[in-house]
Specification:
Elements lengths: L8 H17 L9 E5 L5 E5 L4 E3 L4 E7 L3 H8 L2 E8 L4 E13 L2 H8 L3 H4 L30 H4 L6 E15 L6 E7 L4 E6 L2
Antiparallel strand pairs: 1-2, 1-5, 3-4, 4-7, 5-6, 6-7, 7-8, 8-9
Length: about 200
C-alpha cells in the first residue's frame, strides 16, 4: 500500500516503482490501465487506455503493446514525447508521467513479448482491418471462424506481423496524493546522473 503520510521523496519514488511493478501482474490494480497520450502531426492530442504490460524499475521504462497499423505508431515515430496518466482510487494517488517512446517491431524485444502473450490477446492482432479504418458495420475485423473462440497457437502466429511493443522511457513523474488532511504533490525528474525532486502546491 502507498504510504500516504510519507514525506520522504526517495521513499515515494520507491513506492511508485513497487506499485507499477504490481500493476503489471494485477489486472485490478488502479495503475494497470493508464491513459496514454501523444500528439499527431497537427499537434492534436490523442488519448486512449492502454494495458501496462511491463515495467523496468531499474531503467524506468513502461511497456505496452499495440497494433503496428495503428495511427499512433506513425505519430509516435515522428513525435516520441508522450504522456501517461495513472490513478489509483484506493490510495488516492495520481501519476502524470512524461516519457520518450520507442517502437519495437519485428525485433527480439517484440518477439520476446509476443512469446509471452496469451492466445486471447494474440487474437486482437488477427484483425483483417487496421485500427481506425472505416467499416459499414460495427465489427472488429476478426475472421468469422474465430468469433467467440480463441485461435490455436498456430493460427495466432499470423498476428505477429501486426504486433508492436511500445517502450516508454520515463523523463519525469508528477505525483499527487489526495487527502482531506491536505493534498501533497511532488515532481520527480529522472535522468542518468541523478534524480531530482521538487515539492509543488497541488
Amino acid at each position: 500500500m502507498m504510504v500516504q503520510s510519507n514525506k520522504n521523496p526517495d521513499e515515494i519514488l520507491n513506492n511508485i516503482r513497487e506499485h507499477l511493478k504490481n500493476a503489471v501482474k494485477d489486472r485490478y490494480h488502479g495503475f494497470h490501465t493508464p491513459v496514454f497520450s501523444n500528439t499527431d502531426n497537427e499537434n492534436e492530442v490523442s488519448s486512449r487506455i492502454v494495458v501496462l504490460r511491463n515495467f523496468d524499475s531499474r531503467k524506468h521504462i513502461l511497456i505496452f503493446h499495440s497494433d503496428i497499423r495503428s495511427k499512433k505508431i506513425e505519430n509516435i515515430s515522428n513525435k516520441p514525447l508522450t504522456y501517461f496518466v495513472f490513478y489509483d482510487y484506493k490510495t488516492k494517488v495520481q501519476l502524470r508521467i512524461k516519457t520518450n517512446s520507442l517502437i519495437h517491431y519485428d525485433d527480439n524485444i517484440a518477439l520476446a513479448a509476443w512469446n509471452k502473450t496469451n492466445l486471447s490477446s494474440r487474437k486482437c492482432y488477427l484483425s483483417q482491418k487496421a485500427p481506425s479504418s472505416n467499416t459499414n458495420l460495427p465489427e472488429d475485423g476478426i475472421p468469422d471462424s474465430l468469433r467467440g473462440i480463441d485461435p490455436d497457437k498456430q493460427e495466432s502466429e499470423l498476428g505477429f506481423k501486426n504486433f508492436a511493443v511500445i517502450s516508454n522511457k520515463i523523463k519525469s513523474i508528477d505525483w499527487l496524493y489526495l487527502s482531506s488532511l491536505g493534498h501533497k504533490r511532488l515532481r520527480i525528474e529522472i535522468n542518468e546522473k541523478k534524480t531530482e525532486y521538487q515539492w509543488l502546491i497541488p
